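Forum: Protein Structure Q&A
Topic: Joint prediction for protein chains with partners

I've read a bunch of threads here and the consensus seems to be that you should model interacting components together rather than docking separate models afterwards. I'd like to see that in practice. Below is the full input, 229 residues plus whatever partners are listed. Could one of the regulars post the assembled result?
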Amino acid sequence: GENVEQHPSTLSVQEGDSAVIKCTYSDSASNYFPWYKQELGKRPQLIIDIRSNVGEKKDQRIAVTLNKTAKHFSLHITETQPEDSAVYFCAASKELGNSGNTPLVFGKGTRLSVIA
Amino acid sequence: KAGVTQTPRYLIKTRGQQVTLSCSPISGHRSVSWYQQTPGQGLQFLFEYFSETQRNKGNFPGRFSGRQFSNSRSEMNVSTLELGDSALYLCASSRTGAPVGYTFGSGTRLTVV
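Posted by a regular:
Agreed with the consensus. Here's the joint model:
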């Protein structure tokens, strides 16, 4: 089955700097890659996702890149702010259209600390 | 619109007991998935229900079971609780069952003593 590796497990950056979190996946048939942000004591929330027919997607200060050949995808946060401090999870899944889908397989998370 | 509601928020049980957790999805969502979150293993998939049928199942022992009702509300049950079952149990709902559009609930924190 699918296996998702996520690095680093912890990341500290100065406010205003960029943060990059990387994930690799094992199943080349996976085609949907979301990122979730989980603040302390709160539920995971989707912040951005990408499908395998796209190489990059941006939403304001957040971007995700996907390299299908290397089977890795990355989250980029620019101009980090203290409120970006949280645990970030990557995940992978196969969308099979009308045939259903495979469950999300998550990486183990990255604890991002933005130091003011 | 109301989000995904999980009850109870916190639960303390003794080893050997059983427990039932509840998840009410967003109105109109027919799929409910359950995940176990622990510091060491991260988020691990338990099972998914769609229109009252279990559609996917993760690699958990048979002590973990679930069901879904006609109103899409779902319950999961853990029998013969073990200390290692202490975790945050999250459910997520979506309209079609595809993970696109997953919305997570706030979870039930289960502590087994």
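The interface with chain A takes residues 4, 33, 35, 41-45, 48, 50, 55-56, 58, 90, 97-100, 102-107 of chain B (CB under 8 Å).
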